[in-house]
Amino acid sequence: LSLASIRRVKVSMSKRSKSRAASLPVKEISLKLGKDELLRRLKDCHAFLKSTAQLEGEPPLGFAELALSLARPGVLNHRDKTVKLNASLAIVEILRVYAPEAPYEMEDLQEILLLFVEQLQGLVDSTSSLYSDYTELLQGLSKFNVFLVRTDKDVSDILVKLFEAIFDIASKCDVAVRNTLLHIMTVILREAEHMPKDVIECILLQLTISDEMSPGYQLSSSVVKQTASNIEPYIRQAIISVLLVGNQSDSNIADKVYDIIFQLSRIQLSTLTSVVPQLELQVKNDARSERLKCVQLLGKIFCEKGLQYVLQNPGLWNCYIGRFEDIDYHLRIEMIRQSKDLFDCQIADNSVTNGLVSRAHDTEEKVRLQVIQTVSDMATQHFQNIPEKLLTSISDRMWDVKWSVREKATVSLARMFKMHCTQYEEDLMWIPNKILHCYFRTNIEDKHLIEFCFSKMVIPETLSVEERMALMVKLYSSLDENAKRAFKEMLKSQARLQEHLRNLMESDKIDESSNDVETLKKSVLKFDEVLKDFKTLISTDRDSAFRDWLQVIVSFESSCQQISQAKQAMLDNVASQKLFHTVLEALLTRCNAVMIDTDCLKSILKLVSNVLEAEETEESEIPELHLLECIAVSFPKRFFDKDIIGGLIEVLSSLSDSSAGIVLYRILVHILDPKWADDRRLEKHLSSLTDQAMHHALTGSVGVAKEAIRCLTKMIWEPQTIQKLFETLISQLEKDNPQLPTVLTVLKEIAVSKASLFDTEVDAIIKDFAVKQILRNDDSVAKAKSKGKSQSWCDKEELVPLVRAKLLCIKLLVSWLKGQDSISKERLDCVLTIFHGLLVRNGDLNLSGRLSPAAMANLRLATAKGYLKLVKEKKSVNLSFSGYCQLALVAQDACDEVRRRFLQKLQKGLISCQLPISFMAILCLYGDDSDRALRNLAKKYMQANIEKRHKLVHSVASSKSKLQLLQPEYCLPYAIYLLAHHPNLSRLDFVSLDTIKEYLCVLLEPMLKDGECHGLLYSLLTSIKQSVDALEPDNQESNKRIYAVCDIAQLILSSKSSSAKASKQQEPVHLPVSLFNSKIKSSYHVTDVFLPPEYVANMQKSLRSTPVARAFGSPQKQQASRADEQSRPTSKSPKAKRVKEEESESTDGLSTSLEESPLSRFTKTRQKKVSQKKLQLSVISEASEGMSTNQSRTDHEEYLDSSVETVQVVSSTKREKEKKAASSSTKKTSARKARQSKSPSKTPGRKKPPIPSTETHSDLEEDENDAETVVPPKKSKKVAASKKKATPKKSDLKQQKRSPSNRASETVKRRVRKKL
Predict the structure, then answer these.
(1) Is there a contact between 493 and 590 (Cβ–Cβ < 8 Å)?
(2) How far is CA 963 from the centre of its chain?
(3) Would the pLDDT of 1155 be above 50?
(4) C-alpha pair distances (Å), 319 with each of 276, 315, 324
């Protein structure tokens, strides 16, 4: 107790000891009493006070003394807990009696409240004998709201201890006690005027307990729910203060503030109403850790509260979605992870989808991987909820730069297909397409990955044969053309690897340099590292089970089940060798990506039979047959089975004359083997096949007949059948025969495969029928209408029969020459003459005028294709230049379809290197095509051919003469000669020259991107200008046209690099002798220019601004050198002029020989004009300096108009100015010395320029004032002023330059320079 309380008690007891005994029925509480007596008196006191009603007015005598005696330190701090408990019970009653004011001072009251808090620990042990007393004490504290006696800051520590004690004992007491404790807490929080921050933090910390069923969490959540409106300001203050300070906060909830916010959102969302704006700021915090924690919090809140909360807080949602674009990739990854939960809760909108799509193209590899993983996890549970564009973005990642991303995306899509293909078959058939498109990548890892996905997920090995084949048919029917090509290539690669392994198995000794081993090294990663172990396991001198298993895998007779078992046994055998196990698994996967056996083929044939029996599908739409054809190309020996061959022939007999029959004949052509003739089991089937093929070859459609005759020619064991068929066909060669297309088609195939048989009747077929009756005869064709515009193109089916026969006869002529072992010159000239006539006469060979434009266009295209096919198939066929020129002009045909199809056919031969290098020049003629798409396609093809041939040159080690056949730069002479002899470019006017430039740009643009070819191109152009036309060596006009085209090419070349001449190759180049004669030297110099000077100037300007210049890059060095030449003053001495002319003559590759060529004269004239303009500019600048400061801009312009007259007096003006400047300097020196002598105290030095005055004075007055200080006294001021005006001081000149009028003068001078 305090000293004041003790003194007060002593005084009261001494004065009223007798009256106290009479007024209170309790004995005195004294510290001198023993424990038992003290305890008895405390109980009596408690009983007395309990029966006493609440005081109204002044308390009776003795109550104050009793209250003070109970609060003595000896009682409150007694060692016995029973004493303290009974004292607590009595004090509670005292507080009830004295309510609402306590009879204690603040210090005493704090001690009493601490005693109450301490006594609460007795509620833990319910088995104690004092438990009822502790419960009574708790009930009294709760009922009388004892802790509300004082709730100011003085008791804040007590409240904190109270709440900590309550949460501490909450988990150890029963429900009734917890409810009482809850009541105490809620009353305090509701009624208190001030609540300490530590109390709120104590409550909030209980919310971070992981176990939500714990009593502490339940008690804390109940407190928040019941007092939400009361404690919301305190919660806001506590949370916002922590969020603002961050990690530097000393608050107890600093580390768990985000967990607290989440729990509050779950318990009572209204407590966070004022915290939401701070969360919006916290999402944009500069600290990455704070943003990350806030993003994690918001993700959990949105998923917990659902779409309604998103709609209520659009600002917070937008800030949250904006973290998809966060600068730190850790936050972007966190947003991607939370996207799955947002989709699961069905609150993800387009913003979430767009965020994922954008992050799929993120620059960080980990972010892209996380997007793929998240979408894959989403597809596992709710595939139908994934947007289509999100799946598309994942498929795009299969073409990612990083291998890990490509692998993740491919495997994820394949896994989706495996899991959901049965349920969402139509929605997922695009996945195999996308996967197969990646098979064209050159990396071994990508090919292995795709084959692994096919064997494990797309067409799993674990499925039964029927299920796998049904799935494969559906998959193949859904593939596009590129995917089908990739699927076929995958099967071919599988067959090649099996063949190489089979060769290694059959060889006695494995040579590491053999083709088989090299192919395996290129096909499987790290195969060279395990080659030694592989050789040991498959060696023939060793009885190894490994060799037997491998034999099962590569055998044609093994079933899929046997192959799977052998693969697993091999991998288990080498499981301990990690590297060997990985390499072997990759090898076996690539060898059996798509397992096919005899049972699989029978299953597919069964599906074909079911389709034909159903009669619901057209015969042209049988995907099973196309799949069989694809398999037959790679695995023909798998079809060697009686049931399979019989099934194919049976299906052929049931098919009518349709495209399905064409496919079936192709299958038979691939699988037919001469060994079948010796197998008696197939005798019946082969006989039936022969009869059907004979029938279709005579009466079938063109397509079916062509495949049927190919099938018959493959059956070489029956030559009499072909002889009989050939005789029948000869008898049917009639112009009016409705089966004439079929007859000509079959004869065309016989001419290629059975040339000796065809030569027996060659005159009857070629000369008498094909040429005379078909190609030279237009009588049966109705005359084309001349009125109106007829159709320029149509399909072959829309043409009249005779025109279709003409097209087939053109193909027949080509096949006839193609089948010859050695072509005679007479036969070749005959065919080429007909082709040349067709092209020259625009498709109308007879000039009858009866053919329609569409018919003539088809004939021109067929002739051009015939030319290309002859050159491809027969390397000995050399076209004359007239034939080559006519073929090239097909690229500029009037019909768009002819140009397009001819370009495709030409590119097919060029990219495969089957056509010679001269045919690349034809692509140049598409440079000014009216169809922009076709023009761009030609440029694309040119670029592809150049890159392909450059790779071949670098990879092939051969002689120089053979390399010239591959180097794309050697097509430049052909292009130049072709353009020089182009019939539409015979006149070298500006329009023709511009057209030639466009043609050359198609060829030179892709070549000049590689800086290594500049020297070779320059050497070729130089050699051409030193040669003459080989066909017309004496024709000077022809030579000049060739040289003019060379000049254009040189200008284009020089615009790319001025060092082309310096990089000229030392080795000589070889020009085509059929076009250029280098033995006869040209009468002109190599530096002569054969272009109009005006065109050269215009072309040089255009090359700097057109797309050509942008593709080449700006020649900065040439521009810098030209700028230096223009800014350099003109040399006055003849020697300097001579040196300058020699320098320009040695450095310019196009404009040397300045005295003879037109370009040199143009250059001299241009230099003379530039010099004259420079001189005018110098005169103008000098004259403008002498003009007065207030001279207007109009005076300058008038002076510029008279600048021509001023040029004539430049020399005299300069001499006068030099004299005046010399005299002015002398006068300045003397004046400075005079001033120094008058004022010796001043430091000698240069005089500072005067500060411009704000007052306006005339220039004459200023000059006169200056003259008075400079000119000696003997001379008059007037003379001095005039002289000073002619030679102003430097300080005055500086002052003039600062004036506005002089600044305007300088602006005028800059504009003059720009114009000049």
Answers:
(1) yes
(2) 37
(3) no
(4) 11, 6, 10
Main-chain phi, psi angles of 1077, to 5 degrees? -110, 105
Global pTM value:
0.71
Q: Which two tokens stand for residue 17?
A: 């000891």
Interacting residues of 317 by C-beta distance below 8 A, sequence separation 6+: 302, 310
- State how far the Cα of 699 lies from the Cα of 214, in Å rounded to an integer: 91
The distance from CA 302 to its chain's CA centroid, rounded to whole angstroms, is 33
Q: What is the DSSP letter of 766?
A: I
Residue ranges of E strands in 1154-1245: none
Angle formed by the axes of helices 257-267 and 215-226, nearest 10°:
60
pLDDT in tens, 896-928: 999 999 999 999 999 999 999 999 999 999 998
Distance separating alpha carbons of residues 373 and 362, to the nearest angstrom: 14
* DSSP summary character for residue 62: T
Determine contact, residues 385/378, Cβ cutoff 8 Å.
yes
Confidence of residue 481 (pLDDT cuts 50, 70, 90): very high
Euclidean distance between CA atoms 135 and 45, whole angstroms: 19
Helix H or strand E segment including 532? helix 531-538
Residue 217 identity (one-letter amino acid): Y
Q: Concatenated DSSP letters for 528-566?
A: TTSHHHHHHHH-TTS--HHHHHHHHHH-SS--HHHHHHH
Backbone angles phi, psi at 657, to 5 degrees: -75, 90
In angstroms, the CA 374 to CA 336 distance is 7
User: Which whole-number Å values give the CA distances from 189 to 198, 209, 217, 1231, 1309, in the listed order?
Assistant: 13, 22, 17, 98, 86
On the question of pLDDT at 994 being above 60, the answer is yes
Confidence band of 1192 (pLDDT split at 50, 70, 90): very low
In 3D space, the residue among 872, 751, 757, 874 whose CA is nearest the CA of residue 819 turns out to be: 751
User: Is-contact 408 369, C-beta < 8 A?
Assistant: yes
**Cβ contact 753:713 at 8 Å:** yes
> What is the tens place of the pLDDT at every residue in 1110-1148?
333 333 333 333 333 333 333 334 334 433 343 333 333
Two tokens at 273? 């109403």
Give the range among 527-536, 642-651, 859-868, 1263-1272 with minimum mean pLDDT.
1263-1272
Please state at what angle helix 1158-1186 crosses helix 1193-1201, rounded to 10 degrees.
Answer: 140
CA dihedral (81, 82, 83, 84) positive or negative: positive
C-alpha atoms less than 13 angstroms from C-alpha of 952 in its C-beta half-sphere: 16
| Cα 1292 from Cα 1304, distance rounded (Å) | 17
Can you tell me whether residue 1076 is helix, strand or coil? strand
Q: What is the pLDDT of residues 617-639, one digit of tens each?
A: 555 578 899 999 999 999 999 99
Burial letters 208-238, b for 16+ CB under 10 A, else e = bbeeeeebbbbbbbbbbebbbeebbebbbeb
Spatial separation of the C-alpha atoms in residues 534 and 521, rounded to whole Å: 12
CA distances from 746 to 93, 479, 703, 823, 873 (A): 124, 33, 10, 22, 20
Structure confidence by residue, pLDDT tens digits, 732-780: 988 888 899 999 999 999 998 888 888 888 888 998 899 999 999 887 7
One-letter amino acid for residue 501 of the chain: L
Q: How far apart are CA 450 and CA 490, in angstroms?
A: 9
339-389: pLDDT as tens digits: 999 988 888 888 999 999 999 999 999 999 999 999 999 998 888 888 999
Q: pLDDT per residue over 1050-1104, tens digit each?
A: 988 888 765 444 444 546 788 888 899 888 887 888 888 888 888 888 877 776 6
Q: Under a CB-based contact definition with an 8 Å cutoff, are residues 969 and 1016 in contact? A: yes
